[in-house]
Amino acid sequence: GDPTMIVGQITEGNKVHFSNTTVLGEHMDGFSLVHLATDRLAVVYRNLRTKQAVVRMVVVSQPVGADVDDPQDDDQELTVGEASIILGEPLALATPGRLLTYLQASAMSASRIVVAYADGSEGNVVIVETAGGVLTAGLPTRFSNTKPLSLTVSALSHQTIMLSYYTNNPWRTMVLKGDYYVSQSTEKSSANQELSFTESTLSEEYSTHCHVSALSTHSFAVVFYDGANEDAGTAVVGMIGQGSGVATGSATEGEQVPVLFSGVSSGHRGLTIGMCYYASSDGSL
Question: Distance between CA atoms of 197 and 275, rounded to whole angstroms?
C-alpha cells in the first residue's frame, strides 16, 4: 500500500485515539520524523523513483472537546475531536542521484533541520530552514568521500550537530562535530552559509555499528560495537569545550590533567599584590 501518516492522541484513562490515515504519496521509504513544535513536524524520506531525499512540513490539528454536563460525574466520557493532518509542499534536496543507503534528520531548532544522507560513494549534510511553512534548503556539504555505514545525526543546538558512522577500510567508527554559521553577504542580500566539521576516530581498533545522540548543548553519547572490548557494545560520553578552564593540578608536557569549567577551583597558590610575575617557557610563573 501507499505510505500513510496517522496521529495518536492519549485521552483520559490512558486510552489512545487514532486519526484517519493521510496518504503521503507513493514510491517512498526511509522515513524520519522531526519534531519542531506542538503542532508541527517535518517528515524526511527518500523518493525511490528520483533517488532524492525529500523534506515535507506537517501541521497537525488536535481538537479536543469535553461533552460533559456534570464535571463531577467520572462516568462521562471525554469526546475527542478528529485530528487533521495538513501536508506542505515537498522539497527535494540536491542529492547525487544515486540510491541513498542512509537518511537521517534532527531538529536544530523550531525552524532549522539538519538532514544527513549517504550512498555507496559519499556522505553529505544539508541544513533546511523553515519560515511561514515554507522550506528552504542550503547547499549540501560533504563530510565523507567514502561510503559511510550506520550513519546517525543528532543536533546539540541551533549551530552544532554531531555525526557518527563507520568505514569498512579500515573498520573504524568516526565521530564528527559540525558547526553551522550564517553570515550576511556585503555585496548582496543573500546570506552565506557554512558548515565546517571536526573529525575524530572513536577507536583505533575494530569498531562498527555506531549511534550518536545529544545529551545537552555541550555533551553527547555514542554507542558502538567494540572489537577491542571482547566484541562487546561500548558507550562513551563526549564533551564539547565551553571556553577557558582551570587545571585542577599540575602536569608535565604530554600528561593529561582534569580541567574545571565551572564551580570553584581550589588548591592553588595565590599571587602577592605588588609583585611582578613572569611566565617561563615551561609554563610556570
Answer: 44
Q: Residue 109: how many CB atoms within 10 A of its CB?
A: 13
Sign of the alpha-carbon torsion through 156, 160, 166, 171: negative
User: Which pLDDT value is given to residue 80?
Assistant: 52
Mean pLDDT per 10-residue run, the chain (285 residues)?
82 82 89 93 93 93 53 48 85 90 96 96 95 91 94 96 93 94 59 83 86 93 86 85 70 76 67 79 68
Sequence-ordered alpha helix ranges (H) in 11-144: none
CA–CA gap between residue 196 and residue 179 (Å, rounded): 5
Of 223, 256, 260, 264, which Cα lies nearest the Cα of 241? 260
Please tell me the distance from the alpha carbon of residue 173 to that of residue 171, in angstroms, as a whole number.
7
Which residue type is seen at 148?
Answer: P
**CA 181 to chain CA mean position, Å:** 16
Q: Of 148, 168, 135, 169, whose CA–CA distance to 56 is shortest?
A: 135
With beta carbons less than 8 A apart as the criterion, state whether 123 and 91 touch: no
pLDDT of residue 239: 84
Nearest to 135 by CA among 24, 44, 6: 44
Which residues are CB-neighbours of 266 under 8 A, at least 6 positions away?
none
Query: Which three cell numbers, joined as nine digits, stand for 36?
Result: 519542531
Burial of 116 (0-12, 13-18, 19+ CB in 10 A): buried
